[in-house]
Task: structure prediction
Amino acid sequence: MNDRFLRRVLAFFLVIFGVLAVIAAGALRYTSISASSADWVNHINATVHEIDGFVAAVQEADGEMRAFALSGDPRERAASREAFDRMTEHFEIGKALTRDDPGNNATMVALEAIGRKRADLAQEIWNAKDQNQPARIQSLLAADAASGELATFKRDAARLREDQFGRLATAEKIAYRNAQTLRMVVWGGLGANFVLLFSVAWLIRDGLNARRKLAEVLEAANARLEVQVKERTAELQAANESLTVQCLEAKWSNLSMEHQLRYANVIVNAVSDMVLVLTKAFHITRVNTAVINTTGLAETDLINKPLDQFLQIGTSPGGTSSFEIFVRSLRDGRDMRRLAGILVDKRQTRIPVWINLQPLRDRDRIVGAVVTVVRAETIQ
Result:
């Protein structure tokens, strides 16, 4: 029950966190979209500003140009030239702002071409005025009026401006729709979280009631178990007393065996003769102190090593050795007494010895042998 209750509460909290994550993701997404829309609106406003700027500059330059053509005042020519310079700046910025919009950028380039033609016309009028050619000035102004170039410029600029305002209206609609969507996501998520929190509170209350009832049932069961435990404790105490006596007896028996083994080790090590315990395969499993002292080898260098590595048995006139007699004796279970042999120590010194073998039996089975080795007189 406890695990199921915790799993339910955890599941509700995971859902709550999931809803919060959705709200956060939605808020971040629509905030990013709103920021992008704001950037777009700013971009459109900047473009509109540049359009208004170069239109105003062209109109001002044209007016100053015509005034100069009539009066010849150098200030009016300077004002016209300054207006054409501002026109150029506005066109450069406008082309940069419409770089990602091929259609509007093409319109901007076409308007710039008209503006440059207006600047060239103004230059011709200035030159004609400097050369005192009024007929030439009248001809240029008449040709400009007949071409309708300025009207075309204003019309195309107004169309470009209207297109930008149309885009601005679209951006405002998108921004409004995103704001409404964000509001719905946030309020919807908060409402869902309140419902989930209420559900979690109800679930916790129901779980606490169930745990209280379970605690009452467990208390009654514990009372019954306490009686059974007391009865069982009495039985265990009696059994424990019996086991204590058995453990003491086993401990005394083990101590007795340890004493016997220690005494046996002391006795074997006290013997001056060399004693080796062998397996049926004639591998050394145990040696006494006399073997270590005589051979000069450590016990680890002797244990689990074959006997014929250190002891040669049954020398022949040719100096060879053989274990055949030992193998037959151990196989037949016969003792061997005073068998001549050679013991090789750590320095490879050959020591003449007498060898005795006594098979070890476990009931009726031969499990190994005990070999005693006694130093003999030096063999010539």
Summary: The longest strand covers residues 350-362. The mean pLDDT is 80.
